[in-house]
Amino acid sequence: MPKVYNWQLGREMEYPYESAHPDWQFAFVFNINRCIACQTCTMACKSTWTFSVGQEHMWWNNVETKPYGGYPQNWDVKLLGMVEEANPGGQTWDAAQKTPDRPFGVFKGMTVFEAAKRTYSPEGPSRVLGYLPTDAEWQSPNIHEETAAGRTMQKGEWGRSAQLPEHNVWFFYLQRICNHCTYPACLAACPRQAIYKREEDGIVLIDQQRCRGYRKCVEACPYKKSMYRPTTKVSEKCIACFPRIEGRDPDLTPDGVPLETRCMSACVGKIRLQGLVKKSKDGNWANIPDNPLHFLIRERQVALPLYPQFGTEPNGFYIPPRWAPRPYLVQMFGPGVDKSVEQYVCPDRELLAVLQLFRASRQIIFQFKIEKGPKVGESEVTLPSGVKKTQEIFNDTVLGYDKNGTEVVRLTIEEPTFERSKEHVNSI
After folding, report:
1. What does the buried/exposed string (b/e) look like for 229-265 if buried means 16 or more CB atoms within 10 Å of the residue's CB?
2. Which CATH number is 3-345's, of 3.30.450.20, 3.30.70.20, 1.20.58.1120, 3.30.70.1560?
């Protein structure tokens, strides 16, 4: 197999195709700490794209409860076990090799592409290690919703199950769509070459004229976001609402600026920030520090990839939940968890301002600017490490700009309050 560089792993890895990169890459950040699992995003996607016969089991966007939930059921646990079986005890990280270009160090284990060479099927070795979920595993998108793990309070205890830095009883919501990976496993596995990444924005699509329904993409995708439709006998997946990304809706975007996807723009909890990041031909991210995604993902590393050890270099990133056990989060998001959580628990002035941009505008924010304001408070914060820190809060104003450089949002750290006049008909 050719060798490609994966910045999330900090090393080269094997991949069936030569490295090729788009001009811009569709990417997003989900803040798990804010999600309330209202499923508004899920239904926004469902009612827009997957409402027809044969699509009943298709949930391109879903919100599942960890540690027990999953759609399809046990999608991550099964694959983690398969990789561990192929490389027993070897799925480790070398954090000592951290550099600016290798923010998480070097992954010493095997990706799903490399582990595939150690597994065999009746058809011979596969390009990608994976499995086909059973029909039963596709049946329940909300299975184990809000089912907690951990030890509950015993008689005579008080407050134990809800103490930070991590709760003794815990669960969290994981929001999932297709990650539109840099090295898609679905693309690598397709024998028809029916799957491709768009040059303009890196969105991964399936050419349904070429697809013959072999379900190799369903088998290979580590996140199980390629799904087979039995009525048409082809596979379908999230298309990142590319008409909105292209700004082609004459009513919503008469000026042609890119819009956030349906699941993003419908989010009630304001947990989602979606955008496009500029990439060079060698795959490096352009250094644009005032792009909110670049700031959160590459500069501050507060947003982390989902299961980076699978090797697909996903372009979906998460701010981990501060209350969940660290070993579980490290398995899911890699070795950058402690740094991410400590920043989120006590954000500095700049990070606090950028966090206000989540779901603040339906236009994609390409650039932000911070106007400094007066100091309005301070508080002592105990970090998960046990270190105490004083957080200073300033009433800064954060501005967001669309692709054309037009201001689309202006927010202050302190929410403004408005007092109704006594003459108002609903005043008490």
Report:
1. beeeebbbbbbbbbebbbbeeeeebeeebbbbbbbbb
2. 3.30.70.20
